[in-house]
Write a structure and sequence with these properties.
The chain is mainly α. It has helices at residues 2-19, 32-55, 67-81, 83-113. Helix 3 packs across helix 4 (83-113). It is flat, with a radius of gyration of 26 Å. The protein starts with a helix and ends in a 12-residue tail after the last helix.
């Protein structure tokens, strides 16, 4: 009975902290399976990104120094020699792309959130 009361008190404290806007990690219950799900999701996403990257064809009219042709040759070579490194590389590029989009979104939100004020010219009478 004491364990049930203790768990209810913990749940009430958690709800109270969530209602108060607490976002600190210690206030949330730890779910052991969550790390496994995150790892599986990361692996699935990596596999999808690798397949999507390798499925793209180089442009037919691209010469040997065309950037799209060079990137496609690089991806094909990585897949043949070191698929694990290719997966790591694509995860890295995907993360950088996500961070850039996040930064661009924050910059755009900051620009639109506060309208620019113009100063009125001072009167010199």
């Amino acid at each position: 009975m004491a364990a049930k009361s203790s768990s209810l008190d913990g749940l009430r404290a958690l709800v109270r902290d969530l209602d108060a806007g607490s976002r600190a990690l210690p206030h949330y219950p730890q779910i052991p399976m969550l790390e496994d799900v995150r790892r599986e999701w990361s692996e699935l996403r990596s596999e999808l990104q690798v397949r999507r990257s390798l499925r793209t064809d180089a442009p037919a009219d691209g010469g040997p120094l065309n950037s799209a042709v060079l990137v496609q040759r690089m991806l094909d070579t990585m897949q043949a020699t070191s698929p694990g490194y290719l997966r790591h590389f694509i995860d890295y590029v995907d993360t950088l792309s996500w961070l850039q989009a996040l930064q661009d979104g924050a910059a755009n939100a900051a620009d639109t959130a506060k309208p620019k004020r113009t100063r009125k010219p001072r009167r010199t009478d």
